[in-house]
Amino acid sequence: MALYESIIILDSLLTPEEINKIADRVKELIEGDQGKIVKIDKWGKRRLAYEIQKKQYGFYISFVFDGKNSTPIVLENEYNYNDKILRYLIYRFDKNKLKDWERQKELGDKKPPKDEDEIPVAEEIPVIDEIKESDIESEVEDEK
Amino acid sequence: MKNKMFDKKTLKPRKKRVCRFCSSGDIYIDFKDEKRLIRFLTEQGKIIPRRTSGNCARHQRQLARSIKRARLLALIPYVADIAR
User: Fold this and answer.
1) Are A66 and A1 in contact (CB under 8 A)?
2) Burial of B43 (0-12, 13-18, 19+ CB in 10 A)
3) How many distinct helices (H) and strands (E) make up chain A?
4) In the 8-state DSSP scheme, what is residue A35?
5) For residue A88, what are the CA distances in angstroms to A8, A100, B67?
6) What does DSSP assign to residue A111?
7) Residue A123's pLDDT is what?
8) How many CB atoms neighbour CB B1 within 10 A?
């Protein structure tokens, strides 16, 4: 048994129910192969760096699981069969990642406030854009 | 030997570059934080060679692997064209 992480990119146009359905299906497959799910992380909708199947946005989900070496093959078969999955990556934790993983576990209690700090930063950006737009409009009015 | 120790034009002794990952003391280069990886890419999206970035061999190998994983997941472009 070893730790693996599998990240999948789904079509961003799917409804939350459909996304949950696929996530449950992956969970089932992992547990059906005597594996254990350690962590499920939904990154949410993100802009892709390049188009995949003519889509600009994707919904990212990551599964960290403890499984046998046959589990990745089972998952790959499912991913190739399901055409709502645009891309996938499955990798086994190497020794450096394992060290980092254990260290993050120890620091786990201190991490959540960092995530909260990130949210206001994202909110600030649109506000600045609005100001810029209004400035431009006012300038245009002045010219008139 | 001379080329290694002195700058060709100014003839001043060269500074020895230190690997950034070694000095920062990080164990693992994560492919999920693309902002950090972008620093080791050219404008076109190519991986900057070790002789330019100054990374040590071990970290350059790890960096290359994480860049390739990030490319697959569309976090970083394979090719970024410069608009002319």
Assistant:
1) yes
2) exposed
3) 4, 4
4) -
5) 4, 23, 16
6) S
7) 46
8) 5
**Chain A residues near residue B77 by CB distance under 8 angstroms:** 49-50
pLDDT above 50 (res A126): no
Three-class HEC string of B2-57: HHHHECCCCCCECCCCCCHHHHHCCCCCCCCCHHHHHCCECCCCCECCHHHHCCCH
Question: A-B interface: how many C-beta pairs under 8 angstroms?
Answer: 32
A103 in Cβ contact with A97 (< 8 Å): no
Question: Which two tokens mark A119?
Answer: 């949210």
Weakly modelled stretches of chain B, pLDDT under 70: 1-7, 14, 16, 82-84
d(CA A61, CA A93): 17
Over residues A36-49, the pLDDT tens digits come to 999 899 988 999 99
Q: Which of A55, A100, A104, A105 has the most B C-beta neighbours within 10 Å, making it the best mutation to test the interface with B?
A: A100
**Chain CA centroid to CA B71, Å:** 15
Looking at residue A113, its pLDDT comes to 52
Reduce the DSSP state of residue A110 to 3 states and report it: coil
- The whole-angstrom separation of Cα A118 and Cα A129 is 18
- Measured between beta carbons, the chain A residues lying within 8 angstroms of B62 are 96
